[in-house]
Each structure stands twice: as C-alpha cells, then as structure tokens.
Write a structure and sequence with these properties.
By secondary structure, the protein is mainly alpha-helical. Helix content is 49%, strand content 10%. It contains nine helices and three strands; from the N terminus they run ααααβααβααβα. Strands 1-3-2 form a three-stranded antiparallel beta sheet, sandwiched between helices. The mean pLDDT is 82.
Length: 191
C-alpha cells in the first residue's frame, strides 16, 4: 500500500474501477477509493463524522447493550508469518474499531492453533473463491500445519478510560482458564 499512496490519482481511479466492476469486490474497492490525501476541510469533516459515530456507539453500549465489557476476536486469523500483515492489514477491523472509538482493549492468548482441529476448512476454501480482497489478504497465509502451536487470543474491550476494569476481566479470564485446566501454555523454545 505504500507504493499505492504515491500513484497518480487517475491510475488509482482506474484501479478502483477495475476492482469494483471487473473483480467485483466493492468492499476492497471502497477502501482503495478513499485511500488518498485529504484537505484540512475534509479532515475536519471526517473528525466530525468520527465523533458522531463515537457518540452513537457509546449510547448503544450504555442504553441497549448494557454490558461491562465485550469479548471478541483480536484478528481474523491467528499469528501470520513475519511480513504477512502486508497482505492482511485490512482485516484488523477487530482492533481498528476500538481504536477509532478510543475504547480500552486488551488481548490475551487463550489457546493455540491445532493442526488437526483448525485444518478442517470448508471445501474450496484454499482457492478463496468468492472472498473479497480483505478476506483474501487475511487468509492468504492461513495454514494450520505451519501455524500449529501459535497463540489464538481473545480481545476484551471496555469503554473509554476503563483500563482497570479491562485488566480485571483479563485477569479473571486467565483465572477461569487455570481453574478449568486450560491455561494457555507458552511455546517451548528450543535453544
């Protein structure tokens, strides 16, 4: 994407059209279309939209969800090979959202990839047919055999300025895993 930032706008627009209408990937095309420099006025408009979105989300959390914390995945896949996030960066929506909202979040490992259990993917999955560009990037490096033993985490999210609450819940999750005999084990490093 670093190279993409320096391409002339007409080339970017042609690539956007190609992605949207020929590759038929409107989700990735929208990301490409908006990947550009903004004027100060456009930047402040985006800030106003962000603040309105934050207020809407906060109202939902307070009035409808009525939850203390939210448990969710930190990423679409477990750890990827070194340099793999160049392809999968757009799949980090699980963390981008809470950064945008300025919410408190922490990630802890809860289990490991198991080549037997996690290798059971639907037929045709390896071909990535029908996936949009974000999903293709996320799963490009997915290989349960090569990822065997890597950590799989859970993200615990709390509202803004609730770091202590999130840390307490993270600690409680670890205690529960220990009590159940499912405590996360660090990988053995062979020296």
């Amino acid at each position: 994407m670093a190279l993409y930032a320096w391409l002339p706008r007409p080339i970017k627009y042609l690539h956007y059209l190609y992605t949207k209408y020929i590759k038929r990937d409107p989700f990735w095309a929208e990301l490409l279309y908006n990947f550009r420099a903004c004027s100060a006025h456009e930047q402040w408009e985006l800030v106003a939209q962000r603040e309105a979105y934050k207020a809407e989300w906060h109202a939902w959390w307070r009035d409808e969800a009525k939850i203390d914390v939210l448990l969710c995945p930190p990423n679409a896949t477990p750890a990827v090979p070194h340099g793999g996030m160049k392809d999968a960066v757009a799949s980090c929506g699980y963390t981008f959202l809470f950064n945008l909202l300025d919410y408190t979040a922490g990630v802890i490992p809860v289990t490991n990839v198991d080549r037997e259990l996690d290798g059971l993917l639907p037929a045709g999955f390896a071909a990535m047919k029908g996936m949009n560009g974000v999903a293709r990037g996320a799963y490009k490096h997915y290989d349960a055999g090569n990822m065997h033993g890597l950590p799989v985490g859970v993200q615990i999210v709390g509202q803004r300025l609730q770091e202590e609450k999130v840390l307490a819940v993270m600690e409680r999750v670890v205690e529960i895993l220990q009590h159940e005999g499912k405590e996360y084990r660090l990988l053995d490093i062979i020296e």
